[in-house]
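User: Predict the structure for this protein chain, please.
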Amino acid sequence: MADLAGKRIILGLTGGVACYKSAELLRRMQDEGATVDVVMTHAATRFITPVTLQALSGRPVWQDAFDARVSNSMAHISLSRGADAILIVPASTDFLAKLAHGLADDLLSTLCVARGAIPLLAAPAMNHEMWTHPATQRNAAQLRADGVTLIGPAEGFQACGETGSGRMMEPDQILRALTASFQPKLLAGKRVLITAGPTSETIDPVRVITNRSSGRMGYAIARAATEAGAEVTLVSGPTALPCPDRVRRIDVISAAEMHAAVMTHVTGQDLFIAVAAVADWGIANPSPIKLKKSDDAQPPHLDFVQNPDILAEVAALSGAPWCVGFAAETDHLHEHAQAKRHHKHIPVIVGNLAQHVMDAEDTELVIFDDAGAHPLPLQPKTQAARDLIAWIAAHLPG
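Assistant: Here is the predicted structure, written as structure tokens:
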């Protein structure tokens, strides 16, 4: 199912060159199933035309607080009622000030004040000096205190030719933040440590032993836990995946490095989810130089050493976080997963058949605990991660 299916979003545009990115965001929201009503300030129309946004949305664009198309001339009431969220992209310095002080002198600012309990999100976009100005920072702090979600801004090159904070977040980042706002905050106030991806064990400077883990499931779980309100630390082996928004990522390569990172950050965590495919063995005698093929074509001799069992070691700690393991099996999933859970002394393990999900976008998870097996349907990994987090939240002690 699309993330925004059945949602009606009011997309507000204020004056700023970043308005051009709002057109892409609008299309992305529609791709996720949303119905989008566009409201523009007069300044916004100087940067992008209402015709463009009407063509993209397939719906009238609103600008006038006294629009005659509304029988009672109360467009700010008619538009805000029934909306699921109001999203201001871009949000200018002036508009943030209006919101912070409750000013309502045009359609967009008026419907924001009249929105009631509808969530309000805003993506600031302005010159870095304007963003860091004390007045803007006071306004931003007040908006957060009032329950407004500010998305960004980011650091980077700006249209004015300068570089610094104040650059608007990209459409895909804004879309993820909007999607996250609709997820129940089942882990609010919780600290979660997650491992993801493969580990890579060195043979020589150019060769390694690794596995086929893409890291997608672990990254999806990190995203879902953050959407659920948790403070997430992700210890990741080598992957090409972007770090989920608002997640602290610690990059490691080998199993030994992953073990060290986990043991460094496990204190104070409420939940540990070990998704990473950690190599069972490392190379005891890695070569400092590239190994050459010998004339007799004999392979090099490698001495293996057993890597630490990160999950079992965390579970054995005094005051350990609640532990959830993962088991990727190729046969007898139920027997192997439950045996692994008992061996590591953990309350929950999540299993799947590796040959069905390697490098795939979908997965079919089975949750194992003392009560037995709890299968989840075959579905995209993003949704599977959300369902898993919801299950964990329902069973997490305390």
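Residues 8-181 form a domain with the Rossmann fold fold (CATH 3.40.50.1950).
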